[in-house]
Write a structure and sequence with these properties.
Structural class: alpha/beta
Radius of gyration: 33 Å
Largest sheet: 8 strands, mixed
Strand content: 15-25%
Number of strands: 21
Distance between the termini: 31 Å
């Protein structure tokens, strides 16, 4: 169409020239005063434009008076500030949030870490291959599914966990920033275990959620990283299957007043849980939270898919305004999905129902005839990129999953429990110790396939669903 129009224009222009009145070269023309006047006006206008531009360039901080206290959009979409500088509305700041699953020290792990020569414990080797992964994130969170009740209690694993302090020190040395303490084993050594564990967290200067030493404190908190504030909550199913006559946690009867120290919910009292959650989200938002992340301990152990209760709770949390849900407790990696709010279709929640075990003694050889026992060796790290735009919008813009596997093997001295980042390890097996056992390569490959099959392409689904702000 553009070519045809140009051709027509040229043809018409040619006809106008041919039909113009003929002027005899011997006939003297009158002086064109009208044209001279018009030319002078045009020259004056050009000089005026040049003079105005010069004035603007000599005063770069000048603004129109009606821009004071307002935001004016310029032609290129930038936002002028009161100082005269401009802010790109699509400019942003970012932070990365790394989350992983259940950290448990069973009795064989405690025995393997023990040095009989000096009576100390060393768990550091467990984390040697994931330190760089943790360090690469701006903020990292782990589910601390044991207690630090102290040496006056026997160190033990299941069914009532109590770990040496060195086990916690190894977690800190690995680089984790926050401990999740609302899980079904937080009350294993009753209130003294809860209080000493919290004291250890506080003495180390590490963040924690899910329990509190003083009943007037909060079990949830805002955390600001790179100028972005995350509102973080953490709760656990009390595993009483809805019984409320005597309140318990994982079958252990709660002493009077102890419930006030723990962030637990009961399946028969979910309306109460939702009402309290709504208040907490409002409190976090009022305190500056720009993204709400809920870490929750729930679901059926060893099930690769979430159950109906998890689905209903996730939907309700989405409706309440939670942006990200990350679950634990099943001891296997479960499926993940993107949930759309039923009250606000524009709001969506990214939900990982379970990140599985980070480290434990659960294994295809230790769990007998338990269903999906080989999946208990596998875990998952989820790395979220959170972006806050200059326009005020804050959202998750990228999801990365890092499948893990616990390389449990015996050498000449002891049993080893090494957390392996699978994709990196399979790309360079010798650098990650996969040749230290006869099954390292084979089982690592199998673990990666199992986890990716369970997740079902959630990263790709999220990438296709995320909607970034545009000017």
């Amino acid at each position: 169409m553009e070519t045809v129009m140009n051709n027509n224009y040229n043809m018409n222009y040619g006809r106008r020239k041919q039909n113009a009145p003929h002027r005899s070269p011997n006939k003297k023309s009158r002086f064109p005063f009208g044209m001279l006047f018009i030319s002078m006006l045009a020259i004056t206008a050009v000089f005026a434009v040049i003079w105005a531009a010069a004035l603007r360039n000599s005063s770069p901080s000048a603004k129109p008076s009606d821009a004071v206290g307002t935001v004016q959009n310029s032609e290129d979409g930038t936002l002028p500030t009161d100082s005269g500088n401009v802010v790109d509305p699509n400019g942003y700041t970012e932070m990365t949030l790394l989350s992983t699953g259940d950290l448990m020290y069973h009795s064989p792990q405690i025995e393997a870490a023990y040095n009989s020569a000096d009576g100390t414990y060393d768990f550091s080797q467990t984390f040697k291959y994931i330190r760089e992964v943790v360090a690469d994130a701006d903020y990292s969170v782990i589910n601390f599914e044991t207690t630090l009740a102290g040496s006056e209690y026997e160190y033990s694993g299941w069914p009532t966990f109590n770990s040496p302090d060195e086990g916690f020190e190894a977690v800190l040395d690995a680089g984790f920033d926050m401990m999740l303490f609302a899980n079904n084993h937080c009350y294993d050594k009753k209130l003294p275990g809860v209080l000493r564990t919290i004291k250890m967290f506080e003495n180390a200067g590490v963040d924690y959620v899910g329990a509190k030493a003083n009943t007037s404190d909060k079990t949830y908190k805002n955390v600001t990283v790179n100028g972005i504030t995350l509102g973080i909550l953490n709760s656990t199913d009390d595993l009483s299957y809805g019984a409320t006559g005597t309140r318990t946690v994982n079958g252990i009867t709660l002493d009077s007043g102890d419930l006030d120290h723990l962030d637990v919910f009961n399946l028969s009292l979910l309306d109460q849980f939702y009402a309290e959650t709504a208040k907490r989200i409002k409190s976090l938002r009022d305190g500056g939270a720009e993204l709400i992340v809920y870490y929750i301990h729930w679901g059926n152990e060893y099930s690769l898919e979430h159950n109906e209760t998890q689905a209903a709770m996730a939907k309700k949390l989405c409706d309440l305004g939670v942006d990200v849900i990350i679950g634990g407790h099943p001891h296997v990696v479960q499926d993940a999905e993107i949930i759309t709010s039923s009250t606000d279709p524009s709001h969506k929640t990214l939900c990982f129902y379970s990140l599985g075990n980070f480290v434990s003694n659960q294994n295809r050889l230790t769990l007998g005839d338990t269903a999906n026992k080989e999946y208990t060796e596998n875990g998952l790290m989820v790395k979220l990129t959170v972006r806050k735009y200059n326009s005020g919008e804050c959202l998750v813009t990228n999801v990365e999953t890092i499948p893990l596997w616990v390389h449990r093997y015996r050498d000449t001295a002891k049993m080893n429990y090494i957390v392996i980042p699978l994709e990196s390890a399979l790309a360079d097996p010798s650098a990650f110790g996969l040749y230290d056992s006869s099954f390292g390569i084979t089982n690592a490959k199998s673990a990666l396939q199992m986890t990716n099959a369970t997740l079902g392409g959630i990263c790709e689904a999220f990438a296709g669903a995320v909607s970034l702000p545009v000017k």
